[in-house]
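My main concern about presentation is that the manuscript never shows what a single data entry looks like. The format is easy to grasp once an entry is in front of the reader. For illustration, here is how one protein appears when written out as sequence plus structure tokens:
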Amino acid sequence: MPDKPSRNEEEYFVRREAEHRARLKQTAEIEARLAERRSHFMKCPRCGADLQVEHYSGIEVERCSECDGLWFDAGEAARLVELNASKGVGGMFRAIVEAVRGPDKPRRA
């Protein structure tokens, strides 16, 4: 039996090692993407502060605790427009802001 592996054996192990490294790299990339998503969950896209869930007309909207920005999930803005069609767009957004912010809370500049 020869002491030195055949060329086919060397190629086989080199290929297996390359496949193993590729799988490890792919797994690390997936984990990095998931960790980044978790770090941004319920954070304001504008300033990075925590978002708080507020309710308006049965719809959940997210409000930033720092900049008072309002954030809507897919379909929520359209649903709010439907619910407040009689107020017009300006009246609708004014009603939403006052409902979420509260009429007594001062506006930020």
About this structure: The beta strands are 51-56, 59-64, 70-71.
